[in-house]
Amino acid sequence: MENYFKKETFYNIGQDLFKNLEKDEDLTIALSGEETNYVRFNGAKVRQSLNVIQGDFIMTLNSKNKTASLRVGFADCKEEGQYERNLNRLKDGLKELRVETSTLPEDPYLVPTENHGHYEKEHVGSLPSTNKLMENILGANQEIDLVGVYSGGRLLRANLNSKGQKQWFSTINFLVDFSLYDKNHNAVKEQYGGANWNQEAFSQQIKLAKKQLELMAKPKIKVPRGHYKTYFGPAAVHEILGMMSWGAVSGSSWKKGESALGQLADGTKKLSPKFSLQENFELGLCPPFNERGEISKEKLSIISNGNLETFLISSKTAQEYNLEDNGASQYEGLRSPSILPGDLKEEDILKSIGTGLYLSNLHYLNWSDQRGGRMTGMTRFACFWVENGELVAPIEDLRFDESLYKFFGENLIDLTQFTETFPETGSYQNKGIGGSKVPGMIVKDFAFTL
Questions:
Q1: pLDDT of res. 348
Q2: Boundaries of CATH 3.30.2290.10 in the chain?
Q3: CA-CA 20 to 30 A from 274: which of 1, 312, 405, 441?
Q4: DSSP code, position 409
Q5: Residue 171 CB partners (closer than 8 Å, separation 6+)
Q6: Is 9 left (phi over 0), alpha (psi -120 to 50) or beta?
Q7: What pLDDT is recorded for position 101?
Q8: What are the helix (H) ranges across 108-261?
Q9: Is 33:1 a contact under the CB 8 Å cutoff?
């Protein structure tokens, strides 16, 4: 990515643009960029391959207690004359923002532009060439219907403002989002991601998926509605954790009385001392600075041993409710969360279940009672009935409806010693940045309603 997005070029464009500001104007320029290889495959054969190189500027103008933002496409600075082209695009954007702010009312909660400091970090990874990766992924799996998408490469986020702020972050990561199908269209879905390719780890994941696919050929068991001891694989925990960004960890939601963690905050409900959640920017999945350039701690404890440490509080929420911000994004969602592991060994999972359910994946998650912390969703793909510590057969789809105060609280038996990393899969407009690192977990008396 250095060939296309150079730190010095970005800094210089910003300084040249800031010379055009008028009195009482402050400007922030954020840059997002990617150089990503996408490969789609099915039948264990490559069907489509694409290399995406793109970037965007987000300009935010503060003028006379008014603010407006604009997205401007980045022009590749490798080619002659493109520096001036980018600068001229931004100058035109500045004119548009002046026109827009002139029509807006004053914002009583406007966050002033400040210099939040200098930050630079480039995380390096280890990825073989795309051709070599496809050989590693597909070569030994020609006998099965292996379907999925590989995405990998370098992601960039950077930030400048007219107060002197300079920030730059880049990282390398990859994700193989894949499924195995048998002749009866049964499927097992898995993900393998991170920053450093490990062929042995990927091969072990394929091996486990193949064993599960063999079990999927058995007739499905219809499990009656009820409460069961249940194991959630890391992919399922990742889905549950994603719901925490929908009105659970937000400081604004808390102050509006809408947070799913509100009862934890006021002390009327508790979580298990085995449960700890943090924003962990040391994972290298995304930068600790947000769209304004406000910098969070590299590790920000949200829940520690079941106790609420903080909500995610943006500067705007802090100003509105007289709180102290902690570098959260304006959305106040989790960007790089990790759930700390527990003591459950991988080889002891089935024995620990005894009789109950083994869930690899979940989908269609939503709050059934957000303020009460109740969540609903469905099982998906490789989910099994377990008896006497043995996988017996796949199950028909189940819907659950359960309180986080139970599955992260009184009913949490343990979390696994191992964790898995799930880079962000979104690619709307550009490849998303961030992700999570989570263990599996085992819960007693989990409620299934349909």
A1: 97
A2: 7-132+148-179
A3: 312
A4: I
A5: 122, 123, 125, 154, 155, 195, 284, 285, 286, 433
A6: alpha
A7: 96
A8: 130-138, 199-216, 234-243, 251-255
A9: yes
Quick one: pLDDT at residue 109? 87
For residues 2 and 360, which has the higher predicted lDDT (pLDDT)?
360
What is the full DSSP assignment across 9-66? HHHHHHHHHHTTPPTTEEEEEEEEEEEEEEEEEETTEEEEEEEEEEEEEEEEEEETTE
Give residues with Cβ within 8 angstroms of 122, minimum separation 6.
168, 169, 170, 171
Instruction: Report H helices in 103-152.
Output: 130-138
Residue type, 230: T
| Predicted pLDDT of residue 421 | 93
Question: How far apart (Å, rounded) are the C-alpha atoms in residues 21 and 163?
Answer: 12
Tell me if 188 sits within 8 A of 216, measured CB to CB. Answer: yes
Model confidence pLDDT, tens digit, residues 198-227: 999 999 999 999 999 999 999 999 999 999
Cα distances (Å, whole numbers) of residue 283 to 240, 362, 381: 20, 24, 28
Cβ atoms < 10 Å from Cβ of 179:
18
- Helix (H) / strand (E) element for 168: namely strand 166-181
In terms of DSSP H, where are the helices of 371-415?
A: 404-405
Give the integer Cα–Cα distance in Å for 19 and 161: 12
CA dist., res. 3 & res. 55, Å (int): 13
Contact indicator for 105, 122 with CB cutoff of 8 Å: no
Distance CA 402, CA 392 (A): 25
pLDDT of residue 1: 44
Q: Are 438 and 234 in contact (CB under 8 A)?
A: yes
Scan for tokens 């923002």, then name that residue. 97
Greatest CA span in the chain, whole angstroms? 75
Has residue 407 got a pLDDT over 50? yes
**What pLDDT does 3 receive?**
60
| pLDDT over threshold 70, residue 78 | no
Q: Is 173 helix (H, G, I), strand (E, B) or coil?
A: strand
355: helix, coil or strand? coil
Instruction: Give the position of tokens 């880049």.
Output: 170
- Could you please state the CATH topology (level 3) that the domain comprising 7-132+148-179 is classified under: PmbA/TldD fold (3.30.2290)
State how far the Cα of 439 lies from the Cα of 391, in Å rounded to an integer. 20
DSSP 8-state assignment for residue 408: I
Q: How far apart are the C-alpha atoms of 122 and 239, rounded to whole Å?
A: 28
Q: What is the pLDDT of residues 327-352, one digit of tens each?
A: 999 999 999 999 999 999 999 999 99
CA neighbor of 329 nearest in space, from 282, 285, 290: 290
